[in-house]
Amino acid sequence: MAPHREEDRHAFYAGKSQPSGSAGTFETIDPSTGQSAGTIHISSAGSIDKAIQSAQSAFPSWSATPPIERTRILQRAVALLREKNDELAKIETLDTGKPFSETSTVDIVTGADVLEYFANLVSSGGLNGESFRLRPTAWVYTSKEPLGVCAAIGAWNYPIQIALWKSAPCLAAGNCMVYKPSEFTPLHAQYLASIYKEAGVPDGVFNVVYGAGDVGARLTSHPAIAKVSFTGQVSTGKKVAGSAAGGMKYVTMELGGKSPLVVLPDADVDQAVDGAMLANFFSTGQVCTNGTRVFVPRSMKAEFERILLGKIQYVRAGDLHDPATNFGPLSSKAHYEKVLSYIRHGADVDKAKMLCGGPRQPANLPQSLKQGYWVEPTVFTDCTDDMKIVKEEIFGPVMSILPYDTVEEAVKRANTTELGLAAGVFGKDVNECHRVVGQLEAGITWVNTWGESPAEMAVGGWKQSGLGVENGRRGLEAWVRNKSTLVEMGGSVPTVFSKL
After folding, report:
1. For residue 2, what pLDDT is reported?
2. pTM of the model
3. Per the UniProt record, which EC number(s) apply here (predicted)?
């Protein structure tokens, strides 16, 4: 059977797919097979400018649309996302290599939840300002005003979810958006643009351009862009934030992590293992909040490892559309080679003890998948804090087990990193869990679970892991600017320029 190919992708603006100019093309790859899944036409400088102009033209009307009316339109988009869930999930599986069992239950569902949340928030007073009496003759009122045309640069690991995390509060607040998906997973963008259009979002409110870093750089530096929202690796985020700040643009940065998962001495070992596997092997480890540094009490380590080895068999690679498959390939050839190099470094240079896995494909892969970017779930143990695999973000299914002797030691070591995206603890004593998690230097923390990020929960990194938050009530604030007005009602204007 011939591999599925999507139609060519061109820039989408003014409500339709548009010629992209002559900037060239690239192929998007099905990572499970290594075969092309479609041709993407890179957006030229001219088409990027036209997409921004389209958003500028749409902004006056969209920003003046009452929030309740914007809500009704966005709620229709929510309904369409849920109606087309499986169709969209198949596209995400094709483009990212994540199993359909995951994309059909997580990716579109959680993106639609966020769109529904922000649509409801703006219709129920989320954009209201405040009013107060300053003195008997004067009062102050504030308003939350939209920013204008915003740029969003997506990541390749959760394409449509991240596109919705960015566009939902942006559009709900009355802004317009030009969105650049990752060049590694671009197929979702036109589907989302079409859903917004079908729901009644006016032409020009949501636009799409395609390409790599140079396209993102043109968006970021364009004088008409009021805000840049970026999800990706730390080094790129610093460049994007620097460029945006130079233009006095608002920014939201959701960057990488090297997050600690601390298993407390009283934890249920079976549950802690389940948590650690979720925090390392879900989405083939390609999650920025993954808990890749697993701190385990030295006295518990042998039992933890025994239970972990017993459960590794439940990580099932294979046909991505088989409901039993829960583990896919890495997203691209370049990333596959990067992860393999970390695994080899961990074994050969760091001299960490490899408990299972290694730089090879999972056993029993069908012949049709042998050319894909598959790697076994890998666990290193007896790791130390100075190892490269412990210090650097691998972004693959590679777990490092670090034994510790005291909780205070574990907390100190957990915080010895420039990154601070996520952290979590497992333990039976909830008071102790709260005490420990309160000391961990991270913006997203969990107790006795890992990874859940509901629409209502604001999330964002500390230290080098980001700026600002997404989702929750605070997530809406990232897409508005404040206006304060002082009204004097005393009937006279105080002046120092009066006749003596």
Report:
1. 62
2. 0.96
3. 1.2.1.3
